[in-house]
Amino acid sequence: MSDAMRNNRKKRIRFLKRLILSVLAAAILLPTAVSIVLGVRVHFLRRELSQMQKALEAQEAAMTAQTAGDAAQTPDIEAQGELTEEDSIRTWESEAKPAAGTYSGLHKVYLTFDDGPSIYTDEILDILKEYDVKATFFVVGKDKAAYEGAYRRILEEGHTLGMHSYSHAYQEIYSSKEAFIRDVNELSDYLHEVTGKYPDIYRFPGGSSNRVSTVDIEELKEYLTEIGVTWYDWNVSSGDATGHLSKEKIIQNCTTGLENYGEAVILLHDAADKKSTVEALPEMIETILEMEDTVIVPITADTIPIQHKAANS
Ligand SMILES: [Zn+2]
User: Fold this and answer.
1) Ligand 1 geometric centre to CA of 41 (Å)
2) CA 84/CA 211 separation, integer angstroms
3) Contact in structure between 135 and 128 (CB atoms under 8 Å)
4) pLDDT tens digits, one per residue of 126-164
5) pLDDT tens-digit profile of 259-290?
6) CATH number of this structure's domain 78-308
7) CA of 199 to the centre of ligand 1 (A)
8) What residues does each domain of the chain span?
9) Dihedral of CA 101/102/105/111: which sign?
C-alpha cells in the first residue's frame, strides 16, 4: 500500500467516525431540543387556557344578563322588575317605599342572592359566616362538578336554597307553560340529586312582574302553588343588576330607609361580574346589624312572601 493510499484510508475513517458521532449527537440533541420547545409551548398554552376559562366564566355571567335584556329589549330586566314593587302576602308597587316612622317592631331583613353559584359563592359564604348571618340563595342550574359543593355548602351552613330557574334563559322559560314546568322540574330534580333535598321556594327570573313572559304569569304562579312551591320577589333592590355600581352605591341602595320596613327582602346577585356586591357585603351587614331592633334572617316557611303586583293589574 502506498503512502498516498494509506493517507486516503485514514481520511475516510476519520470522516466516517465524525459522521457517526454527528449522527449520535443529533439523535440525542434533537429530541431534547424538541422536548424543550414543546414543554415551553405546553406551559404557555396552559396559561392561555386558564385565562380563557376565566374569561368564559365572566362571559357566561354577562350572557345570562344579556339574555334577559334581549328578551325584554331593555338591558336590565331584573332592575325593571324592581320598578313594580308593594304589600300578606305583601304586594309591592312601583318603587313603593314605606313612609318614615310607619313601622315599629322587629325589622326583618332578608339578604337574597340570585343567579349563583358563581366564582364568588364561597367568598359570600365566608363573609356571612364571619358575621354569623344567614341568607337566601335563589340558584340556577350549573351542572359543573365544580359547583356541586357550593349548593351543598349553602344548605350545610344554614342558609336557604331556593330556585331561580335552571337555564335563566328568559325566551325559553317564558315561551310556554310547558317550557316553564320543564325548567322548574329540571332544577328541582338536579338540586335534589346534589343536596338530597327538594327546594320549596322560587324567584322568577326578572321577578314575577317581568314583562318578558309571553305566557300569563298567573298560570305559572298557579303551577308553583300546585307543587307546593312559594315564590318571592323583593322590595329593596341593591341595583347590582344594573351595570357596574360602586360598592358604596350598593351599600346605600340596600340600607337607606330600611328602618321603615317590617320585612325587607333585598335583591342581590351572586355572579362572576358582580364583584362590587361581594365587596359591599361586610359594611352592608355591619350597617344593618347596627340598626335598632333589626335582624338579618333567611327566608323560611314562616316568612311572609313579598310579591310584586302583577304588571298588568
Ligand atoms: Zn336572575
Assistant:
1) 40
2) 11
3) yes
4) 999 999 999 999 999 997 788 999 999 999 999 999 999
5) 999 999 999 999 999 999 999 999 999 999 99
6) 3.20.20.370
7) 17
8) 78-308
9) negative
